[in-house]
């Protein structure tokens, strides 16, 4: 065994990967497994974006770029933030990185000293705690229960803050809950952040995927103070079905962006050049495909949600955004004879041949996460299989 660095000793491998590996194993044996684990839209990247990428390569734009992104991409992002949120940023306040994930990683590396605390609401996106720990920070969890629609209250935030608190992470719309903070809820949270002078990491990667008549509000839009203390994170992965292109960005205070860019200059050199040209087209070109994909997700949600609700022992809140459902299945697991939701998930895969993600990976042990970023036909079949599995063992 290699003697590895202390910093990776507690690194938890992604739960998503473990279940996907098992599902692939079964598929290789010829088993008809339906995977509901995907964290990415099932559409190809829109044609105009593919064309722009191809054209840039033909034009010889295949070399290094500035570490924090091409000026033209920064400009496209600045225009997008102005157009969609009414926010004004200068190029010095924008840093483009290799997906929102790596931008967040870079952020925590430049922000945290050993022992600095970052408040993370449960259920959380799997990478937040690991990234904070890799930067020698300490994740401090606040549990947002189903009864509070998986959203933290200002009081909970207040109570979690200590003199070591550096920031709170807010992810709206949320992966895995699909919940969206209203403007009023964000105002109350921003007020606590102002009072205790802490930063806000606002992960808005699912901004474009919202359903019904809810609205996405960026906390940075609430006041000059909120904007100053917010690190706004977004990217093209989910909005433009560009997960594999790896383009995300941060909009924040110029000194923070400079530090992140300096770090990137030694770690990545620059985000992939071709992908940057693709992202310029994603933001500057027509946005029809974004809306088409949103509508398709909403349609699937409308079909699948009542079917999921009808499964005995499943309690599920209708999500407002993203493309995940997070039913509490503790009753179903207990009634069908499983000691834990993790065991229930394993049995769902091996016996019903449906792959879902156990909520334990998101800090929400009584839940499972299903992604509806797959065809309606497969979704319907998968939920029928789950229903059948539960009733046959009840
Ligand atoms: N933030 C959240 C909440 C996510 O779910 C994801 C991807 O699954 C990301 C950030 C990272 O997105 P990307 O690195 O593809 O830009």
- Give the CATH level 1 class of the largest domain: Alpha Beta
Briefly note the structural class of the backbone: alpha/beta
Helical segment count: 14
The CATH architecture category of the largest domain equals 3-Layer(aba) Sandwich
- Tell me the helix content: 40-55%
Termini distance? 45 Å
The average pLDDT value, as a whole number, equals 96
List the strand order in the largest sheet.
2-8-7-6-5-3-4
Strands, total number: 12
Determine the CATH superfamily of the largest domain.
Answer: Type I PLP-dependent aspartate aminotransferase-like (Major domain)
CATH topology of the largest domain: Aspartate Aminotransferase, domain 2
pLDDT < 50 runs, ≥5 residues = none
Number of domains: 2
Instruction: List ligands, each type once.
Output: pyridoxal-5'-phosphate
Shape: globular
Largest sheet: 7 strands, mixed
Using only C-alpha atoms, the radius of gyration works out to 21 Å
Element order, helices and strands? Answer: HEHHEHEHEHEHEHEEHHHEHHEEEH
Keywords: Aminotransferase, Pyridoxal phosphate, Transferase
GO biological process, one term: amino acid metabolic process
Family: Belongs to the class-I pyridoxal-phosphate-dependent aminotransferase family.
EC number: 2.6.1.-
What can you tell me about this protein's structure?
This protein is α/β, with parallel strands linked by helices. It folds into two domains: 6-44 and 289-389, Aspartate Aminotransferase, domain 1; 63-284, 3-Layer(aba) Sandwich (Aspartate Aminotransferase, domain 2), CATH 3.40.640. The chain contains 14 helices and twelve strands. The protein has helices at 15-28, 47-58, 71-85, 99-111, 127-134, 154-160, 183-196, 224-228, 254-267, 273-284, 288-309, 330-335, 341-352, 376-393; strands spanning 34-35, 94-97, 117-122, 138-143, 165-171, 199-203, 230-235, 248-251, 324-325, 354-355, 357-358, 368-371. It has a seven-stranded mixed β-sheet, with helices on both faces. Strands 9-12-11 form a three-stranded antiparallel β-sheet. Helix 2 packs across helix 10 (273-284), helix 3 (71-85) runs parallel beside helix 10 (273-284) and helix 11 packs parallel to helix 14. The longest helix has 22 residues, at 288-309. The site of pyridoxal-5'-phosphate has 13 residues, from helix 4. GO terms for molecular function: pyridoxal phosphate binding; transaminase activity. InterPro entries: Aminotransferase_I/II_large, AspAT/PAT-like, NHTrfase_class1_PyrdxlP-BS, PyrdxlP-dep_Trfase, PyrdxlP-dep_Trfase_major, PyrdxlP-dep_Trfase_small.
